[in-house]
């Protein structure tokens, strides 16, 4: 399921599922929470950058997100970020 307004829906659902499976023991789900936080931070940075550059919409459409992640990962690997 893709959510146009929440690019981290999968990570959010994984966090909730972990809590349910672990009797709401937050410590048992710390890795999921960290992954969700990183996802939110990443897409927030994308929004800020796109807004600064005048690109609309600030949050890219769901069908473009995988390509954006790949492009930014390749840039970071090559040291051009």
Automatic annotation (TrEMBL):
Which GO cellular component terms, listed alphabetically, does the Swiss-Prot or TrEMBL entry include? mitochondrial intermembrane space
- Annotated region (Disordered), positions in chain: 53-81
Q: Classify the main location.
A: mitochondrion
Q: Where in the cell is it found?
A: Mitochondrion intermembrane space
Where are stretches of biased composition, namely Basic and acidic residues?
62-74
Q: Output the lineage of the source organism.
A: Eukaryota, Metazoa, Ecdysozoa, Arthropoda, Crustacea
Superkingdom of the source? Eukaryota
Q: Which family does it belong to?
A: Belongs to the CHCHD7 family.
Name by which UniProt lists this protein: Coiled-coil-helix-coiled-coil-helix domain-containing protein 7
Q: PANTHER family annotated for this entry?
A: COILED-COIL-HELIX-COILED-COIL-HELIX DOMAIN-CONTAINING PROTEIN 7
Output one GO BP term. mitochondrial respiratory chain complex assembly
Keyword tags: Disulfide bond, Mitochondrion
Q: Per the UniProt entry, what species is this protein from, by scientific name?
A: Petrolisthes manimaculis
């Amino acid at each position: 399921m893709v959510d146009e307004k929440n690019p981290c829906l999968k990570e959010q659902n994984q966090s909730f599922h972990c809590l349910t499976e672990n009797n709401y023991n937050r410590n048992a789900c710390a890795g999921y929470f960290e992954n969700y936080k990183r996802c939110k931070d990443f897409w927030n940075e994308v929004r800020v950058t796109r807004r600064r550059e005048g690109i609309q919409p600030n949050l890219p459409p769901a069908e473009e997100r995988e390509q954006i992640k790949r492009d930014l990962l390749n840039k970071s690997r090559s040291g051009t970020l």
